[in-house]
Amino acid sequence: MDILQKIAEKKILDAIQNGEFENLPGKGKPIQLEDDSRIPEDMRLAYKILKNAHCLPPELELKKEINQMKELLGAMPDEREKYRLIRKINLKIMKLNMMRRVSPLLEEHELYYRKIVDKLSGEE
């Protein structure tokens, strides 16, 4: 063991004896390790910083907006308002699909007005 490791070990043991680790948040709970194996190694630190700052990549932010708008559809009594919202959702879906570089099979599908209105009204 080199000198720096010995010094670090001594400081840690002293802190344990002095009770400095007794009231730490998360004490007694398992450590939750994040699976970042799919993130390129050189990008992991940047992703961690953005995540801790609660910043989402533009694609995820747009997808979040789309999902929130879809939830609003169910509470809208006016069919014209539903139609307007569906048009906005479709526009955002189109933007999302243009931003991503994935197979068309994995893209978000646009909402269809009549199909949505029928489903929401229970007519299917």
Can you describe this structure in just a few lines?
With 124 residues, the chain is mainly alpha-helical.
Write the layout of secondary structure elements.
Blueprint: H1 3-17, H2 44-52, H3 58-73, H4 79-99, H5 113-121
Helix pairs in contact: 3-4
Record keyword descriptors for this entry.
mainly alpha; single chain; 124 residues; 0% strand
Structure description:
With 124 residues, the chain is mostly helical. The protein has a domain at 58-121. The chain contains five helices and no strands. Helix 3 (58-73) packs antiparallel against helix 4 (79-99). The chain is elongated, with a radius of gyration of 25 Å. It starts with a helix and ends with a helix.
Poorly predicted segments: none
Q: What composes the largest sheet?
A: none
Mean pLDDT: 82
Oligomer type: single chain
Radius of gyration: 25 Å
| Class computed from helices, strands and strand pairing | mainly alpha
| Cα separation of the termini | 72 Å
Shape, per Cα inertia axes: elongated
Approximately how much beta-strand content do the residues carry?
Answer: under 5%
Give the helix level as a range of percent.
Answer: 55-70%
SSE order:
HHHHH
SS element count, helices: 5
How many individual β-strands? 0
